[in-house]
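This week, think about what follows.
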Amino acid sequence: MTACRSAADRGADLVALPEMVLTGYPIEDLALRKSFQDAAIAAAVALAQRLESEGLGALTVVLGILDRGTHGPQNAAAVIHKGRITHKYVKHHLPNYGVFDEHRIFAAGDEPCVIAVKGVFISIAICEDIWQERGPAQDAARSTDVLLVINASPFEQGKTDTRLELCQERASQTQSIVAYVNCVGGQDELVFDGGSLVVAADGAILGRAKQFVDAMLIVDVPGLKGFGPAVPGEIATELGDTEEVYRALTLGLRDYVHKNGVASVVLGVSGGIDSAFVAALAVDALGAKNVNGVAMPSAYSSDHSISDALDLTKRTGMRVRTVPIAPMFDAYQTALNLTGVAEENLQARIRGAILMAVSNSEGHLVLATGNKSELAVGYSTIYGDAVGGFGPIKDVPKSLVWDLSRWRNEHATEHGQTEPIPPNSITKPPSAELRPGQFDTDSLPDYDILDAILNAYVEGMAGTQAMAALGLDPQLAHRIVRMTDGAEYKRRQYPPGTKITRLAFGRDRRLPITNHWREPDVGGMSESS
């Protein structure tokens, strides 16, 4: 209502809101519940009546709703005018890839929907419909002035430019203005970045909203296929690639915490880059008073790890307490006498137990600080550093964590602020510090190399031979692939976290845990052959 009233006050005749805006998106199997369908349909009808009763009936409002048809629930757009729903459009193309599962949930439509507002003829479409080359909505747009597309399009790296190019292509094909409306906010592992835009038939940008913030974009468009000039609206400056990811992670964390009714978070701080970056991110998302750190030094913790953790406290303003784990570790060892990896993992599990105890006692949400590279190869301790309610950087490769950390500090310097991340946390070699003199490179290649292999295998779905053709060491690639395949059971037990890459573990990449297939080595034979 607030958005509609503000738009009307600024002279708008039509307001377009995102896909499934009344229920949120995705709603997954809630769409299949009759009680939820009934409530969603009632909410749409009530909104139409309320707009009329509050003096906004003359406004035309197009918004995404959950509807119900003969063959099941529908992802639909409702057109509201003068207190009632005058038209509906049902999404035609139901995506069933990546994070999307619409074909299983919704029934598809097959009819176009064209409306007229003050002499401007508008064809309506929903999200995936314009990603297809042809369809009823696009065909109808060839004889209308505007192709209006409402979306719930999740953020991922590189998608901003792709959306603009798509809108420009569809505008050229239909010779109409394309208005692309996208939602903003976090929903579980997805984050929606907004960035709504309007492009002319010649591809010129008539308006573009800011990303990652609620924004109203107003553009005046001519009717009668371009009779009269369009009046451009605000054209927001595009964010740089690194800042775009940082804003996505910030919004994803903030909304997950706030929308689930949690007031504060807690995380382990070790002086390392991952925990330092997550802490800085959490402070930006939630405020320093709502971020709690626990430093848990062991006999193997270096002096700089402790000092870097304390430096983080001073820089961010977050609260940090110190809980030495040596007495607890000694008690376990007296009872169990563990050696090797079991001894190393015991330290991580003690730390996980401490964080969960603090969470239970004080009501904080535990943040897991593992990154995508570690998650890929199983370089984390289940029930140890993998504990938590949310993993803010679970889809962020380690090399990108460093890039984001450097960007955040540079951003602070540019704005006359204190760099939140201790420089030593960025520059020192990474180490789990679970044994004397341990470094990540003892068991893993340099992260730039590791991330190149993982990107080829996970996102590119390349086998070892294909990776060799890309110039990657085939023997090393084969070892990393083996580690990645063997860590599937760990990833299943990791908490949710914001998706920022094209193919994230979990929603995007679904593999069986019980699985004897292994990618062929350079000799061309798989281990299951």
In short: DSSP finds 17 helices and 16 strands in the chain.
